[in-house]
Amino acid sequence: MKRIQLLLLIISGLLLFTLMACLGSSKTQLLKTQASQVKLRSIQTRAFDTTNKNLTLRTVIATMQDLGFVVDKADETLGLVSGTKLSGYRLKMTVTVRPRGHKQLLVRANAQYNMEAIEDPGPYHDFFIALEKAMFLTAHNVD
Known about the structure:
The protein is of the alpha+beta class. It has helices at 2-44, 53-66, 121-139, and strands at 45-48, 70-75, 80-85, 91-100, 104-113, 116-117.
């Protein structure tokens, strides 16, 4: 009887150890995923010192067109513009514009290549460089 209790105690201990190991790796994986999502969001988002949502959306549309995108949808109420670039590949970008406090707008771009999210900072960097230039020119009434 004592041997059975000892055997059950050892098995319980091994199961508990295995469960703890799995939980530890799940927690680590979750933290890595959250960190990569925060990093990606920081690449995809820029704040602009304006509250004119309509003008910002128009500038986003013009920038996307300048970069070779065909605008598929634009919705001022939702603050959303989506477009597709078809020159040799299928690149889709969706840009959202929303208020940040009382003095800024947040612009977030989300790009996909063949239905896979793009995590490379290059396309986002190129888009935001072009958008920042366009926003500057628009703010200073330069055509």
